Amino acid sequence: xxxxxxxxxxxxxxxxxxxxxxxxxxxxxxxxxxxxxxxxxxxxxxxxxxxxxxxxxxxxxxxxxxxxxxxxxxxxxxxxxxxxxxxxxxxxxxxxxxxxxxxxxxxxxxxxxxxxxxxxxxxxxxxxxxxxxxxxxxxxxxxxxxxxxxxxxxxxxxxxxxxxxxxxxxxxxxxxxxxxxxxxxxxxxxxxxxxxxxxxxxxxxxxxxxxxxxxxxxxxxxxxxxxxxxxxxxxxxxxxxxxxxxx
Length: 247
Description:
Distance between the termini: 34 Å
Shape: globular
Number of helices: 6
Radius of gyration: 17 Å
Strand order of the largest sheet: 2-1-6-8-7
Order of helices and strands: EEEHEEHHHHEHEE
Largest sheet: 5 strands, mixed
């Protein structure tokens, strides 16, 4: 059984990463703001802290049975301390071709759908449709954030991937904590043991969220994927308008 979710907020392809079912809606800020926890306030950590390699208790617990190599560039505990000593990821890069190829494929399928939905398959549009309208370039930073959301649930939380993580953050909170600004942001998620095939995942996402993918308000995409955990396969797709920094 697939678990699906969507979050839309209004106000896709480069190879990663070696350079370094319920629905809900809501509004969020486009500028990074301090996070206020219900239990404690954040403090500023050493900005020179090095990324954490995922060789901690998560790997030891067997939650990463696929042995996916990954590095967390940003977590809830480093380099800015939102939750003291937390290694829960916010930005994750990987050298796994299996992961990046799957992410690229889903982004390509979504872009094919978007192009058809907006142009009707007509190459000769008058006036012409700008490339940024019918084709969503992959934002490396959105991609890392989406992937981190998947990895977060693989390593630390049982059950389907949800739009809000146990820290209480939806996509807006995660992007803000990752120091990414945006004019609009939306996320859809998918998880489940039968959703490992990128084509099947793309089919399910497009069938359920086609109108969102065709929305011209967004001009960048970030597709994240990770495997392991209780649901085996996890997907997150983030759409954003004018994210900064993009890469």
